[in-house]
Records
---
Amino acid sequence: MNWLRRWNARSLASQFFIAGGLVSIAAMFLVGILVTNLIEDAVIHNSGAATALYVDSVVAPLLPDMQTESLLDEGSAQALDETLGQGALGRRLVSFKLWRNDGTILYSNEKELVGQKFPVNGKLQKAFAGSLVARYDVADDPESGAERALGKPLMEIYNPVLQPWSGQAVAVLEFYETAEGLRDSLAHARLQSWGAVAAVTGIFFLVLSALVFRGSRTIEAQRKDLKERVRELSALLAENRRLQRRLQRASQRVAALNETYLRSIGADLHDGPAQHIAYASLRLDSDLLVNASTEPKAREKELAWIRSSLAEAMTEIRNICSGLVLPQIEKSSITEIVLRVVEAHQRKTETFVETIIDEDGPELATAVKICIYRFIQEALNNAYRHGGGVQQTVKAVSHDGHVCVEVSDRGDGFDPTAVRPTSLGLTGLRERVDSLGGFFDIKTGEGGTTVTMTFEPMEAGD
């Protein structure tokens, strides 16, 4: 079965060239043999007919009534001897026989054959039926020993002798001639016939091959294009599956992080504003405020402590809310978003942030804008808390639908492996970027820290 696999691996043009070539060669040989045989038969028959017509015109007047004669009389035999043994006819004819329909030789230039009877072969039968028989070959009949002894092909002709009034064959003239030049004529005819058949077959095969090769190239090009498309679709399918797994994992982690965020917010409210409010509530029930004998100065001091605690609680609540609530950024460009979050960070920390913005991309989806805002906000907060806010830089680039945002500082850096999995900062950034199909990267060392996010944004409205 290896040959079958190798055969199927070939192109259609190659298969046609091999199979069609073999079939064409076989057809050429079959047609060539058929055409050559037909031409040879036609040449031999025409040559024999011409000779028979000439011999018949010379010999027929010398023959007696063959229906009444058993053997030729001496005068007729002598006339035939003189006619067939002289001149151009004598030089061409090798032998001559006159047959009766029962196989008896009535006359022959070989006198020992006269009166002998031989089996009637197919050639004689056909001639007695009225047809001319011509054959070019080495003589092989029992009565043709002398002709066979010459060892070369001769023109053997059987010509029926017909009665003038009835057209019935009453005898058959058999004669052999040297047929000089016939061999060359046959060779020339063979060469021409084989050449014609080979030329026609070759042209036919070449024309078909050109058409098949053209079609094969088209099919091969379509097959390659189809394979390329299948490969691309397979790659896209694999990428979609990978992204789907990433999205599922990110969704699970985001759900867990949201719960962690809620617990963190609850802890911040409990440890901050709730403590101040509880302290104020306890002071409201103190003896200094309840007892009517308390001095106004002492009561005022106690109220001042309560107002201070409530003010601190309100301040912390506002800070927590400002971190949770985003400004209106749905209609904002990347430039406006970056400047807004950078300015807010500079006011809050009283530090300077170098800003580089290069924007010429399309409008981004709201989810991407929120991601950009939170990414810069959290990265700058980390740079301030852990890197001291040294040489903070924000670089945002948007070209042809690709967005890259980079936040860096020149602090001391940190060990990424030491970050706890439950940490909300970096983990939250990574999960937020992953959930949108983007890529998150962080590089840190003695020269500082660089946090980068890149992705192809969704179309606006997705």
---
Amino acid sequence: MPSEHRVLTIRLSEMRDAQALMDIDALVWNEWTAPEPVRWSSREDYLRHCPPGSQLVAVVDNVLCGYIGFRPATGLSSNSHVCEINIAVHPDYQQEGIGSRLIEAGKKWAQEQGKRKLRLRVLSSNPGAIAFYRKCGFVQEGCLEREFCIGGRDVDDILMSCFLARP
């Protein structure tokens, strides 16, 4: 079905979403997109790290196809206005605008929670993701040079952020 006829819903994650989210992680997070592949040992392990309500999920025609996750940047009260995000879209649904819609929904949700800054980390070996984040309003704040050695190559860890308007 052409993407313009699909119905996209974005909502908070629920317990029933765990397996689909684990499957997306297994498909998306590999040696080119993460310092090491993300593999959950069990559903319980996943839910311990990503409890229901800690993500916004994208559902297209009743298929969960992506998410944006949120976690405290440090756990310090002086840093509570900052939220670290991660985002993934199932490969079959990429290049359809779902990631952009998740980022926009994530910005709105974070503002409603009193957050003023979103931050993320992206590998220099993933130029497509870097361009995507820039398109969504993120700017590079720093770079940890040669932070990882992946596939025999030194890879930088790029720190990006986006400031949100006060609600």
---
Amino acid sequence: MKSLVMGLGLCATLLSAASPAWAEMPRSSAPADAAVYFIEPADGATVGQTFTVKFGLKGMGVAPAGVDAPQTGHHHVLIDLKQPPAMDQPLPMSDNVRHFGKGQTETELTLPPGKHTLQLLVGDKNHMPLDPPVISKTINVTVE
């Protein structure tokens, strides 16, 4: 139990603003021809509250978070973000930044009725955006 508490304390210290562990975390290079895009839904689509989202990636491979393989990464879906997240630190996990660290290439999203924006961003083994960022164009969906 003591080691668990010490481990949690270390994690809290690493994640605190006073000691940003990510400050020394290098960003992985993106292949020059890498691109991420939505296969589904199409930009401007009207969808139900729960709908399928399929991710496309070209010029590199998909690998789960934690896997250190060259020219690979995993998907993150950015939902209704007004501006992209910081590209020099690990992506936060929130309702607006969804992680697919198991290497998933599709998911089911449930969103409230209304207009929403979706964007894909590829992260490396540590959830860091690649350098340069591999980010899709923003698409718009209307949820009924």
---
Amino acid sequence: MEKKTQKLERTMTSRHIMMMALGGAIGAGLFKGSSNAIDLAGPSVLIAYLIGGIILLFIMQGLAEMAVKNSEARTFRDLVQSVLGPYAAYFLDWIYWKMWVLNIAAEAVVAATFLQYWLPGMPVWVLALFVALVITSVNLLSVKSFAETEYWLALIKITVIVVFIIAGFILLFFSFGSHTAVGFSHLTDHGGFFPNGAGGLVTAMLVVIYSYGGTEIIGVTLAETKNPEKVVPKAVRGTLTRIIAFYILPFYIIVSLIPWNQVNQVSESPFVMVFKLIGIPGADHVMNAVILLAIISSMNSGLYGSSRILYTQAADGRVPKIFSKLSGRKVPVYAILLCTSFLYLGVLFSIFAGSQAFEYLMGSLGYTVLMIWLVIAFAHLKSRKRNQTAPGGYYVKWFPYTTWLAILALLAILIGVIWTTSIAITLVTAGIYLLITIAYLVKGRKLA
């Protein structure tokens, strides 16, 4: 019988969770979703990512403040439940779990397609199975081993993006050989900075929010982080500046070097297109490898986040206790295995949905990130109301203005997304939220 005293070990440092947040956010949303965002908004995609980055900053500041005030919290469900009540916490837990298991299912197929670049004769399901087994093995190791793996995967991605930024600026502002510096001309030469108007900017916000989603995984690491009340604020400060830089600067280079209306006309990632302009031999292979690592890194973070949500649900008696069982390495082995099963469901789903699986799921995942951020923001707003004096240690300086600004911006984006998104995606997402609510009314409320 499982002992109630079994607990996760606090072995993760700010270095680990900072890179994990980057690993979750700098994935397929950046490398695969970039073409979609540029096609929707044109050069104004830079404004979209800046707005998204500012909103993310305000949300994560609130999360950090709540973590400082509640150092015993295991995940952000504990932070939310103490201020918004059991339903909000239950809803947040399950939509976050749903987000990650759907995301790893979609990205398993995407990772397989990038492996197929080198192994064209190998079936997608075989390659997806291989990726799934690798991800499962890494997560079944100790949490420190997992964190170290994620750290180095994220570091590789960041190094390549830094090289991309430096080389891109050289191409933009210096002429050499047959290359002529283009400067800022492509930002306005093809229909202006807002070629699709304000509507294009609003529509692109769904891709933007999806792309930034994953950063809030910091809130799931609380039970395995040393001194979370000190580490989380430090990680939030360091992570946000890097995410905004690693999105806005690369997008600025892409839309400045390549006319925005040509980005989506070829099957290549815009990152590959720019590396070819730089003249690096085998640029397509280099970027294919980097994108593959980026997706695996994001899946790694996703499996971690979803399994820890399931673990805390089991520890509290909301799902079968077996999912709270820890291995000798202090990882929730059965929770990991259940969440991993969605990787294999992703393989089956790809048989029917084909290459459209990622695009279809991205819409639902974008909705979910919006809802998660809104719940965190409302929780932060109410947490400070319960104690009007500024808390000790870390606190948000311009409260409540930053939090209200984030809430109003997210609600505006939500309305715009509902107006412009496929009705099928909206209905499927609403149906999932309704099922979660019914489950709470039937069972979850009794356990609150």
